Amino acid sequence: MKARIKITLKNGVLDPQGKAIHHAIDALGIPGVDDVRQGKYIEVALNETDETKAKAAVERMCRELLANMVIENYSYELVR
Amino acid sequence: MKARIKITLKNGVLDPQGKAIHHAIDALGIPGVDDVRQGKYIEVALNETDETKAKAAVERMCRELLANMVIENYSYELVR
Asked: What is the pLDDT of residues B19-76, one digit of tens each?
């Protein structure tokens, strides 16, 4: 089972990295971009076949390690 | 329209950041993790309503700016 985890900044949290990317896109001359936000993407391969247990493990690693819950949100999907 | 872009390392490319996360997960005592790979996640808000044009813009920013095509892959989805 594989977990695809996205960590994103909460709304209102400043994102200088996203701003830098936005400037670089403008400098390339690509039009039509309103906003850019950068987050993290983490793929975790689990040797767990039980979906409930896999979910519990992923929740725990998101809350305790991967996401800073003060400024970040996480979301994930489990795929077989 | 919004583009959700994932940048991931190609298979075979060393991922020390992913390894560090793997070690930290083990240290937390969360069992059942085989492998961890870290990538980037970027959300781009586009003021383009034409899907073909939005796609072309996102392809260009992925190839020319966001992904290093030698060691990274990109994938994205467009949402309204």
From this structure: 999 999 999 999 999 999 999 999 999 999 999 999 999 999 999 999 999 999 999 9
Q: Are A44 and B36 in contact (CB under 8 A)?
A: yes
User: Cα–Cα distance between A36 and B62 in angstroms, integer?
Assistant: 13
pLDDT score at B19: 97
pLDDT in tens, A61-72: 999 999 999 999
Q: Which of B8, B30, B40, B53 to mutate against chain A (most A CBs within 10 Å)? A: B30
**Three-state DSSP string of B60-80:** HHHHHHHCCCCCEEEEEEEEC
**A57 contact residues in B (CB cutoff 8 A):** 30-33
Q: Which CATH class is domain A2-79?
A: alpha beta
Contact at CB, B36 and A42, closer than 8 angstroms = yes
Contact between B28 and A64 (Cβ < 8 Å): yes
**Out of B18, B28, B57, closest to residue A30 by CB:** B57
